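User: Teach me something about this protein's shape.
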Amino acid sequence: MLNAIYNDATEHMEKSIEAMKREFSTLRTGKVTTAVVDHVKVDYYGTPTPINQVGNVIAQDATTISITPWEKSLLSTIEKAIQEANIGVNPNNDGDFIKLFFPPMTVEQRHEIVKQAKAMSEKAKVAVRNIRKDANDKVKKLEKDKEISEDELKKGLDQVQKLTDSFVAKIDETLASKEADILKV
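Assistant: First, the predicted structure itself:
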């Protein structure tokens, strides 16, 4: 019974970390990645479609992303979608493809992005703590229903806390790594 609670909590905590990593991928670091445009949706025959499903999205160098649509008629639609997404750059349309030129980030921009990363990691920690609360409630309910002893209750709560501490440490490590990546010039 307790193992099922631990496994469930572990699974949910891992999902919280994965969600945080997905959010981190949208943040700009010293080197631009195609993840910057992942959330941009293009109106493709009436259906909102991710940019990477209507053309090739390539990071040409540290500051340039090139988007080559599979259908030339989509150039203006993609350009409009990027402008509306407000990702911090204006698209350059040359008739065959769209280029996004990202200027080098200033120190202030880097610190602002680090703040965003810290907020994202804090959100993940809150999610992990909520999972801990749910797991603790389940363990306490088992003891209340006389399915486990008081000693098992104490061990169960300690185990859930150890799980929580390990996942909070993983979140901190991931944040430190991302922070170093953002601040690296």
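Now, about its shape. The helical segments are 2-25, 75-85, 107-144, 150-183. The chain has a mean pLDDT of 90. If you'd like, I can walk through any region in more detail.
User: That's plenty for now, thanks!
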